[in-house]
Automatic annotation (TrEMBL):
<feature type="binding site">
    <location>
        <position position="145"/>
    </location>
    <ligand>
        <name>ATP</name>
    </ligand>
</feature>
<keyword id="KW-0067">ATP-binding</keyword>
<keyword id="KW-0547">Nucleotide-binding</keyword>
<keyword id="KW-0173">Coenzyme A biosynthesis</keyword>
<keyword id="KW-0963">Cytoplasm</keyword>
<comment type="similarity">
    <text>Belongs to the type III pantothenate kinase family.</text>
</comment>
<comment type="subunit">
    <text>Homodimer.</text>
</comment>
<keyword id="KW-0808">Transferase</keyword>
<dbReference type="InterPro" id="IPR004619">
    <property type="entry name" value="Type_III_PanK"/>
</dbReference>
<feature type="binding site">
    <location>
        <position position="198"/>
    </location>
    <ligand>
        <name>substrate</name>
    </ligand>
</feature>
<keyword id="KW-0418">Kinase</keyword>
<comment type="function">
    <text>Catalyzes the phosphorylation of pantothenate (Pan), the first step in CoA biosynthesis.</text>
</comment>
<dbReference type="Pfam" id="PF03309">
    <property type="entry name" value="Pan_kinase"/>
</dbReference>
<keyword id="KW-0630">Potassium</keyword>
<comment type="pathway">
    <text>Cofactor biosynthesis; coenzyme A biosynthesis; CoA from (R)-pantothenate: step 1/5.</text>
</comment>
<feature type="binding site">
    <location>
        <position position="116"/>
    </location>
    <ligand>
        <name>substrate</name>
    </ligand>
</feature>
<keyword id="KW-0479">Metal-binding</keyword>
């Protein structure tokens, strides 16, 4: 943690969490342990970061005039709220280090056994956030820019996981690395598996390819840990659940959807560190 000072009771009531992902910033406003609002924005430049910090000093949750979308309602907060950050993007992390009440969460703060040095902090926090609510063992499927699977055993020891390109990244790769394939956006419903148009064939390949791989991992996990909870999170989680509901309905019924799981992990670490 970058700032070792403990917080007073007043400070603990209002605070901000920021998860810096590969593609976007994920924000949450907390009052104590209660998450009041969650919102998302694109990565910001230094000018926008300074504007937000000045706004927090005045008690503004999000500054008017920023091009990036903020939370609805424009609520006010107590001035100078603590900011707890988990980041996988160093240059975006650097924007916030000038803020006087900045707390950086690293792997050293995460109470998970068997960690390896290059494990993403987002994966570790999602895992402990899931375990805090549903216990060990647990498997987290995070359908973000990179789709990750991360599991821990009944003792809270990391078993391991896998990383593959997520839904959007696979679509982007096909568009940018091929000459004839068009840009594709996912339809509201699942495409036909055996498609008769190029856009539907791309959507089919990405959705059913990723989905079948994830289903195979979950089946293997349940063979190892039959009582384990499986939690699905991330921006592509809804698409993944839609696939499972069609192809493996019993698996879909048992999976738990929690889009903002990482904030449960950040909140838990903050509680431990703030004492």
């Amino acid at each position: 943690m970058s700032n070792s000072a403990t917080e007073s009771g007043r400070d603990a009531r209002n605070w901000l969490a920021l998860s810096i992902g590969n593609s976007r910033l994920h924000w949450a406003w907390f009052q104590g342990e209660v998450c009041k609002q969650v919102w998302h924005s694109p990565h910001l430049d230094s000018a926008a970061g300074e504007k937000l910090i000045h706004g927090w000093n005045r008690g503004e949750l999000w500054c008017a005039g920023l091009e990036s979308p903020g939370p609805p309602g424009g609520e006010a907060i107590a001035p100078n709220p603590p900011l707890w950050i988990a980041s996988v993007v160093p240059h975006q992390l650097a924007l916030w280090q000038s803020y006087g009440r900045f707390y950086l969460i690293t792997l050293e703060d995460v109470p998970l056994l068997g960690l390896y040095p290059t494990l993403g902090i987002d994966r570790a926090l999602a895992l402990v956030g899931a375990a805090r609510q549903w216990g060990w063992p647990v498997l987290v499927v995070d359908a973000g820019t990179a789709l990750t699977l991360t599991g821990a055993d009944p003792e809270g020891r990391l078993v391991g996981g896998a990383i593959l390109p997520g839904f959007g990244l696979q679509l982007q790769s096909l568009t940018e690395k091929t000459a004839a394939l068009p840009p594709v956006t996912f339809p509201a419903t699942l495409p036909p598996r055996w498609a008769l148009t190029t856009p539907e064939a791309i959507a089919s390949g990405v959705i059913y390819g990723i989905g079948s791989g994830v289903r195979d991992f979950i089946e293997d996990w349940w063979q190892r840990f039959p009582t384990s909870t499986v939690v699905i999170t991330g921006g592509g989680g809804e698409m993944l659940l839609r696939y499972l509901q069609e192809s493996a309905p019993e698996m879909a019924k048992q999976a738990i959807a929690m889009p903002d799981l990482i904030f449960a992990g950040i909140c838990y670490i903050k509680q431990q560190q703030s004492g």
